[in-house]
Amino acid sequence: QAQLVESGGGLVQAGGSLRLSCAASGRTFSSYAMGWFRQASGKEREIVAAIARSGVNTYYADSVKGRFTISRDNAKNTVYLQMSSLKREDTAGYYCAAAAAVRGGFYTTPVGAREYDYWGQGTQVTVSS
Questions:
Q1: Whole-number mean pLDDT of the chain?
Q2: β-strand 33-39 against 92-99: which pairing, if any?
């Protein structure tokens, strides 16, 4: 069972950058596909980005393509979300999630929330104009 802890959120001006981190406990981090989701006030949770166990295959929501980058460091049991050119509409709680190996192959990037087994508590990102 994985425990996930996000960090790196905060208040930033539009156009600025933030890097979110998600540290996972346990010895099997490399066996999980990882994802970042976000949920804005009054809206449903949505996928932002995902990275496969391969560390190479990635997925991005159209709204963040070219601005956000997901990466993972298996040696540190950590997944990152580098966010640049932030917009007010990026304001949300950001959650990382882990999908167990049984849910897909080595190159799979799960995009549905139901495909993920473990969730962090979230970190708030607020973008001001």
A1: 95
A2: antiparallel
